[in-house]
Design brief:
heterodimer; A: mainly beta; six-stranded mixed β-sheet; 55% strand; B: mainly beta
Protein backbone atom coordinates (compact mmCIF):
# COMPACT_ATOMS: atom_id res chain seq x y z
CA UNK A 1 0.00 0.00 0.00
CA UNK A 2 1.15 3.49 -0.70
CA UNK A 3 2.05 5.51 2.36
CA UNK A 4 3.57 8.76 1.24
CA UNK A 5 1.89 11.53 -0.63
CA UNK A 6 4.13 13.98 -2.41
CA UNK A 7 3.25 17.55 -3.04
CA UNK A 8 3.36 18.96 -5.62
CA UNK A 9 2.92 16.21 -8.18
CA UNK A 10 4.80 18.28 -10.73
CA UNK A 11 7.07 21.27 -10.37
CA UNK A 12 8.69 23.40 -13.04
CA UNK A 13 11.33 25.96 -12.14
CA UNK A 14 14.12 27.96 -13.70
CA UNK A 15 17.71 26.95 -13.29
CA UNK A 16 19.21 28.54 -10.19
CA UNK A 17 15.96 28.58 -8.26
CA UNK A 18 15.29 26.41 -5.24
CA UNK A 19 12.92 23.46 -5.46
CA UNK A 20 10.89 22.30 -2.48
CA UNK A 21 9.02 19.03 -2.44
CA UNK A 22 6.88 17.79 0.41
CA UNK A 23 5.90 14.34 1.55
CA UNK A 24 3.29 13.23 4.03
CA UNK A 25 2.84 9.78 5.49
CA UNK A 26 0.30 8.02 7.62
CA UNK A 27 1.89 5.63 10.08
CA UNK A 28 4.79 5.79 12.50
CA UNK A 29 8.16 5.33 10.88
CA UNK A 30 11.69 4.23 11.65
CA UNK A 31 13.18 6.38 8.91
CA UNK A 32 12.27 8.30 5.77
CA UNK A 33 14.33 8.32 2.62
CA UNK A 34 14.35 10.34 -0.56
CA UNK A 35 15.13 8.89 -3.95
CA UNK A 36 15.60 10.31 -7.39
CA UNK A 37 14.68 8.61 -10.64
CA UNK A 38 15.49 9.79 -14.11
CA UNK A 39 12.94 8.90 -16.73
CA UNK A 40 12.92 5.18 -17.38
CA UNK A 41 15.89 4.54 -15.14
CA UNK A 42 16.57 3.04 -11.74
CA UNK A 43 16.44 4.68 -8.35
CA UNK A 44 19.21 6.75 -6.88
CA UNK A 45 19.30 7.05 -3.11
CA UNK A 46 19.66 10.67 -2.01
CA UNK A 47 19.35 10.88 1.71
CA UNK A 48 18.00 9.09 4.79
CA UNK A 49 16.63 10.81 7.84
CA UNK A 50 15.83 8.88 10.99
CA UNK A 51 12.71 9.39 13.04
CA UNK A 52 14.69 11.07 15.82
CA UNK A 53 16.29 13.56 13.44
CA UNK A 54 14.74 16.83 12.37
CA UNK A 55 17.01 18.04 9.61
CA UNK A 56 19.77 16.70 7.43
CA UNK A 57 21.98 18.17 4.74
CA UNK A 58 23.86 16.65 1.86
CA UNK A 59 25.44 19.01 -0.65
CA UNK A 60 22.64 21.04 -2.20
CA UNK A 61 20.00 18.89 -0.54
CA UNK A 62 18.26 19.70 2.70
CA UNK A 63 15.71 17.35 4.22
CA UNK A 64 13.46 18.06 7.16
CA UNK A 65 11.28 15.71 9.10
CA UNK A 66 8.36 16.60 11.35
CA UNK A 67 7.09 13.42 12.97
CA UNK A 68 4.29 15.26 14.77
CA UNK A 69 2.87 16.28 11.42
CA UNK A 70 4.04 13.11 9.70
CA UNK A 71 5.67 15.11 6.96
CA UNK A 72 9.02 15.69 5.34
CA UNK A 73 10.39 18.15 2.84
CA UNK A 74 13.23 17.97 0.35
CA UNK A 75 14.85 21.23 -0.68
CA UNK A 76 17.21 21.37 -3.63
CA UNK A 77 19.06 24.66 -3.70
CA UNK A 78 20.46 26.37 -6.78
CA UNK A 79 18.81 23.86 -9.08
CA UNK A 80 20.40 22.74 -12.31
CA UNK A 81 18.92 21.34 -15.49
CA UNK A 82 20.49 18.00 -14.53
CA UNK A 83 18.26 17.90 -11.45
CA UNK A 84 15.30 17.24 -13.73
CA UNK A 85 13.89 13.92 -12.52
CA UNK A 86 11.18 12.39 -10.40
CA UNK A 87 11.70 12.50 -6.65
CA UNK A 88 10.13 10.02 -4.27
CA UNK A 89 9.96 9.80 -0.54
CA UNK A 90 9.87 6.35 1.00
CA UNK A 91 9.23 5.29 4.55
CA UNK A 92 10.19 2.29 6.59
CA UNK A 93 8.15 1.27 9.61
CA UNK A 94 10.76 -0.93 11.24
CA UNK A 95 14.16 -2.41 10.57
CA UNK A 96 13.35 -5.18 8.14
CA UNK A 97 10.14 -4.04 6.50
CA UNK A 98 10.16 -2.91 2.87
CA UNK A 99 10.21 0.72 1.91
CA UNK A 100 6.83 2.15 0.97
CA UNK A 101 6.99 4.84 -1.66
CA UNK A 102 5.05 8.03 -2.12
CA UNK A 103 3.57 9.08 -5.43
CA UNK A 104 6.49 11.29 -6.34
CA UNK A 105 7.12 14.76 -7.66
CA UNK A 106 8.22 15.32 -11.25
CA UNK A 107 10.69 18.16 -11.23
CA UNK A 108 11.59 20.03 -14.39
CA UNK A 109 14.45 22.51 -14.23
CA UNK A 110 14.53 24.77 -17.24
CA UNK A 111 17.86 26.12 -18.38
CA UNK B 1 26.42 0.25 -1.09
CA UNK B 2 25.35 -3.24 -2.00
CA UNK B 3 24.99 -4.13 -5.65
CA UNK B 4 21.84 -5.62 -7.09
CA UNK B 5 21.64 -6.72 -10.69
CA UNK B 6 18.64 -7.55 -12.81
CA UNK B 7 18.36 -9.45 -16.04
CA UNK B 8 17.12 -8.73 -18.56
CA UNK B 9 17.04 -4.96 -18.48
CA UNK B 10 14.42 -4.87 -21.17
CA UNK B 11 12.11 -7.49 -22.65
CA UNK B 12 9.38 -7.43 -25.23
CA UNK B 13 7.10 -10.41 -25.50
CA UNK B 14 3.87 -11.51 -27.08
CA UNK B 15 0.67 -11.71 -25.13
CA UNK B 16 0.24 -15.10 -23.49
CA UNK B 17 3.90 -15.88 -23.03
CA UNK B 18 5.74 -16.09 -19.72
CA UNK B 19 8.69 -13.93 -18.83
CA UNK B 20 11.28 -14.57 -16.16
CA UNK B 21 13.18 -11.74 -14.51
CA UNK B 22 16.26 -12.47 -12.43
CA UNK B 23 17.45 -10.44 -9.50
CA UNK B 24 20.89 -11.09 -8.09
CA UNK B 25 22.43 -9.86 -4.89
CA UNK B 26 26.05 -9.56 -5.91
CA UNK B 27 28.04 -8.84 -2.80
CA UNK B 28 26.12 -10.35 0.07
CA UNK B 29 23.67 -13.10 0.73
CA UNK B 30 20.13 -11.80 0.92
CA UNK B 31 17.57 -13.84 2.77
CA UNK B 32 14.95 -11.25 1.88
CA UNK B 33 14.31 -9.52 -1.42
CA UNK B 34 11.46 -7.30 -2.48
CA UNK B 35 9.76 -6.94 -5.84
CA UNK B 36 8.20 -3.66 -6.93
CA UNK B 37 6.25 -2.66 -10.00
CA UNK B 38 6.14 0.81 -11.49
CA UNK B 39 3.67 1.88 -14.16
CA UNK B 40 4.56 4.85 -16.40
CA UNK B 41 4.64 8.13 -14.53
CA UNK B 42 3.60 6.38 -11.34
CA UNK B 43 5.36 5.40 -8.18
CA UNK B 44 6.77 2.08 -7.08
CA UNK B 45 4.26 -0.36 -5.68
CA UNK B 46 5.43 -3.25 -3.56
CA UNK B 47 4.32 -6.54 -5.09
CA UNK B 48 5.83 -9.15 -2.83
CA UNK B 49 8.49 -10.06 -0.34
CA UNK B 50 10.69 -12.93 -1.42
CA UNK B 51 12.13 -15.10 1.33
CA UNK B 52 14.92 -17.58 0.69
CA UNK B 53 13.74 -21.12 1.13
CA UNK B 54 10.10 -20.29 1.76
CA UNK B 55 7.07 -18.97 -0.02
CA UNK B 56 6.87 -15.35 -1.01
CA UNK B 57 4.51 -13.00 0.74
CA UNK B 58 2.30 -11.10 -1.68
CA UNK B 59 0.72 -7.72 -1.21
CA UNK B 60 -3.02 -7.38 -1.41
CA UNK B 61 -4.26 -7.42 -4.98
CA UNK B 62 -1.18 -9.14 -6.43
CA UNK B 63 -1.98 -12.55 -7.90
CA UNK B 64 0.51 -15.11 -6.68
CA UNK B 65 -0.31 -17.50 -9.51
CA UNK B 66 0.39 -14.83 -12.08
CA UNK B 67 3.57 -13.47 -10.55
CA UNK B 68 5.60 -16.47 -9.50
CA UNK B 69 8.50 -15.74 -7.21
CA UNK B 70 11.28 -18.16 -6.51
CA UNK B 71 14.07 -17.43 -4.07
CA UNK B 72 16.01 -20.65 -4.25
CA UNK B 73 19.37 -19.28 -3.22
CA UNK B 74 20.69 -16.48 -1.07
CA UNK B 75 21.83 -14.52 -4.09
CA UNK B 76 19.05 -15.06 -6.60
CA UNK B 77 15.35 -14.30 -6.68
CA UNK B 78 13.28 -14.69 -9.83
CA UNK B 79 9.96 -13.20 -10.80
CA UNK B 80 8.03 -14.96 -13.55
CA UNK B 81 5.15 -13.14 -15.14
CA UNK B 82 2.96 -15.94 -16.42
CA UNK B 83 0.65 -15.60 -19.41
CA UNK B 84 1.60 -11.98 -19.75
CA UNK B 85 -0.90 -9.47 -21.08
CA UNK B 86 -0.46 -5.87 -22.23
CA UNK B 87 -1.64 -4.59 -18.84
CA UNK B 88 1.37 -6.33 -17.28
CA UNK B 89 3.66 -3.97 -19.19
CA UNK B 90 5.57 -2.16 -16.51
CA UNK B 91 8.94 -1.49 -14.93
CA UNK B 92 9.82 -4.22 -12.43
CA UNK B 93 12.39 -3.41 -9.77
CA UNK B 94 13.87 -5.76 -7.22
CA UNK B 95 15.54 -4.84 -4.00
CA UNK B 96 17.52 -6.59 -1.33
CA UNK B 97 17.86 -5.87 2.33
CA UNK B 98 21.17 -5.70 4.14
CA UNK B 99 20.71 -4.91 7.79
CA UNK B 100 18.45 -1.90 7.77
CA UNK B 101 19.46 -0.75 4.31
CA UNK B 102 17.59 -1.51 1.14
CA UNK B 103 19.35 -1.55 -2.22
CA UNK B 104 17.62 -1.46 -5.57
CA UNK B 105 18.31 -3.12 -8.88
CA UNK B 106 18.34 -1.13 -12.12
CA UNK B 107 14.91 -2.43 -13.13
CA UNK B 108 13.49 -4.49 -15.98
CA UNK B 109 11.18 -2.91 -18.50
CA UNK B 110 8.57 -5.38 -19.69
CA UNK B 111 6.51 -4.63 -22.76
CA UNK B 112 3.78 -7.08 -23.68
CA UNK B 113 2.45 -6.75 -27.20
Amino acid sequence: SQQGEEDPQALSIQEGENATMNCSYKTSINNLQWYRQNSGRGLVHLILIRSNEREKHSGRLRVTLDTSKKSSSLLITASRAADTASYFCATRNSGNTPLVFGKGTRLSVIA
Amino acid sequence: GAVVSQHPSRVICKSGTSVKIECRSLDFQATTMFWYRQFPKKSLMLMATSNEGSKATYEQGVEKDKFLINHASLTLSTLTVTSAHPEDSSFYICSNLHGNEQFFGPGTRLTVL
